[in-house]
């Protein structure tokens, strides 16, 4: 039976960082298990390819979230990466850390060492960017962060409209202050995606003490009493060969918000009242496993564009061929743009201490449901969502079958507070879409349409066509052992279990005011120092 010092489950945003850092100790052996295959596909490398990856089962789990009252009885597609790089290989590239107050609130909830001052060195250590200043931004890290270099008259008009409506320009929303409007920052270098795998894993995959096993689906953890000693997995699908490997030191779950909770439950760590009817013996009772799921929920406003071209028309025919040539020759091209080109962060009400709304603008419009399919006619879209939702749901296994998707219910908009903040965001989004600088290009509102005005009508539209923004978190939340919903402590060790940590977005105790890829990589980098007994000031970083 193969034995390693560390076994990492999941080669996603967190797992690739950990594999890099832990294998830097040449005297320690590391095995990285990834359920998907290699990240070779061209659509992964091309930034605009994220729209194709929505529906590609070879690199995407293609989960669905359960229908609920506030989604109008609709199931919602929940893409999750299933390849080296995980969701960082199929996402929209946006780099957004969140607000300093987010992390200070984590620390205030009893999570020592997770305040903004504690996590900032790790954000800086990850990044290699020319944006911002040296006090808050990293210059020489493996993960390239760049500003959007593809500008458009519609984007310029939207930014000017935001400024005229009281949202100031912000040169760096990942710096000291998030509030304001600017072009988005993205994990793109020279027109190519920079996933966690590209930045952290590929440069070190030749290390003799690092073994990467692909298409390895974890089916359960191995225990000796209350200590995890190994991992069981199947390689090659449901009927593939079963394997078991051992860990001398630790097993580290980096399988993501849905899959980390699923693996814990399949292994007997969770709520006994949920596990027993499924025929799973409880190894350790932790009722919080699979609870506290939160996600950002976004309705969108779309308008038809006049007297200007949008991205829609450039994605087909000769125009697309021209964009391909530009991309291949290193020029600015629509193939090298992120999912969102402009970000605006603002307050739902003047009394709010920190901005609580995230508004995005793209000079493109999407077919119903935002499934990555663009319309044929010229259009533009504004989306809005509440940054720190109070509503929370669950991710619970349906059976003891590791190949069955868990039941995922984010419970969107269940709390009245969320609905009120979202209504404010929708009204601001509509105002910005019809602002004076955009009027020369604004033909008419396509959705939801000018007849929709009242709160009830707007909420009905949110219910009808709102979607995930692909930011699930919290199913293995971090907290002290006095918190009955906590799953891991502030060193990310699973409460009551030895030799097991969870390191991914599932440990976030509260939602970040952000997209989650940057925060997830930060968590992994910080965890690597906890495991290795180092600090961010140590000379050897990789």
Distance between the termini: 29 Å
Largest sheet: 7 strands, mixed
Identify the overall geometry: globular
Q: Could you say which structural class the secondary elements and strand pairing correspond to?
A: alpha/beta
The assembly state of the depicted protein chains is single chain
Considering the protein shown, what is the CATH homologous superfamily of the domain at 3-41 and 197-293 and 476-532? FAD/NAD(P)-binding domain
Strand content: 15-25%
Computed CA radius of gyration, to the nearest angstrom:
22 Å
Q: Under the CATH scheme, which architecture of the domain at 3-41 and 197-293 and 476-532 would be assigned?
A: 3-Layer(bba) Sandwich
**Level of helix content?**
10-25%
Low-confidence stretches: none
By DSSP, the count of extended strands is 26
Q: What is the number of helices?
A: 13
Overall pLDDT confidence: 94
CATH topology of the domain at 3-41 and 197-293 and 476-532: the name is FAD/NAD(P)-binding domain
CATH class of the domain at 3-41 and 197-293 and 476-532: Alpha Beta
């Amino acid at each position: 039976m193969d034995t390693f010092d560390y076994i990492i489950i999941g080669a996603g945003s967190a797992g690739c960082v950990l594999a890099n850092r832990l294998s830097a100790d040449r005297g320690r052996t590391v095995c990285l298990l990834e359920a998907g295959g290699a990240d070779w596909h061209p659509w992964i490398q091309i930034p605009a390819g994220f729209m194709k990856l929505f529906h590609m089962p070879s690199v995407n789990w293609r989960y669905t979230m359960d229908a609920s009252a506030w989604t109008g009885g609709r199931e919602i597609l929940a893409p999750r990466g299933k390849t080296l790089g995980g969701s960082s290989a199929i996402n929209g590239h946006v780099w957004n850390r969140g607000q300093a107050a987010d992390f200070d609130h984590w620390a205030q909830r009893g999570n020592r060492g997770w305040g903004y001052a504690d996590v900032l060195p790790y954000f800086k250590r990850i990044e290699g960017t020319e944006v911002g200043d040296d006090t808050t931004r990293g210059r020489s890290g493996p993960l390239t962060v760049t500003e959007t270099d593809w500008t458009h008259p519609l984007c310029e008009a939207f930014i000017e409209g935001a400024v005229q409506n009281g949202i100031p320009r912000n040169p760096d929303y990942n710096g000291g202050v998030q509030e304001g409007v600017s072009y988005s920052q993205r994990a793109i270098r020279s027109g190519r995606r920079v996933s966690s795998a590209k930045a952290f894993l590929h440069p070190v995959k030749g290390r003799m003490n690092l073994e990467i096993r692909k298409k390895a689906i974890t089916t359960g953890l191995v225990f000796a009493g209350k200590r995890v000693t190994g991992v069981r997995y199947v390689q090659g699908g449901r009927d593939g060969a079963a394997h078991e490997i051992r860990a001398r030191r630790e097993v580290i779950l980096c399988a993501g918000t849905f899959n980390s909770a699923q693996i814990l439950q399949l292994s007997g760590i969770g709520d006994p009242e949920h596990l027993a009817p499924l025929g799973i013996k409880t190894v350790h009772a932790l009722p919080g496993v699979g609870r506290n799921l939160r996600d950002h929920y976004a309705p969108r406003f779309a308008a038809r564009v006049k007297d200007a071209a949008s991205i829609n028309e450039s994605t087909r025919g000769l125009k697309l061929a021209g964009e391909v040539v530009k991309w291949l020759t290193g020029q600015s091209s629509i193939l090298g743009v992120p999912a969102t080109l402009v970000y605006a962060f603002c307050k739902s009400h003047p009394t709010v201490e920190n901005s609580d709304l995230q508004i995005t603008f793209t000079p493109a419009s999407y077919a119903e449901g935002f499934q990555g399919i663009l319309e044929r006619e010229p259009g533009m879209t504004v989306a809005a969502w509440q940054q720190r939702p109070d509503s929370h749901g669950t991710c619970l296994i349906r059976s003891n079958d590791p190949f069955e998707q868990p039941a995922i219910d984010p419970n969107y908009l269940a709390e009245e507070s969320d609905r009120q903040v979202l209504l404010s965001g929708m009204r601001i989004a509509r105002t910005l879409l019809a602002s004076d600088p955009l009027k020369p290009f604004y033909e008419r509102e396509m959705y939801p349409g000018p007849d929709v005005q009242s709160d009830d009508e707007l909420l009905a539209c949110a219910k009808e066509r709102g979607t995930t923004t692909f930011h699930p978190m919290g199913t293995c939340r971090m907290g002290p052992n006095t918190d009955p919903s906590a799953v891991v402590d502030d060193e990310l060790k699973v409460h009551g279990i030895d030799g097991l940590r969870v390191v991914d977005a599932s440990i976030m105790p509260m939602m970040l005011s952000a997209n989650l890829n940057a925060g997830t990589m930060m968590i992994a980098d910080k965890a690597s120092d906890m495991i290795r007994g180092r600090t961010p000031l140590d000379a050897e970083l990789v």
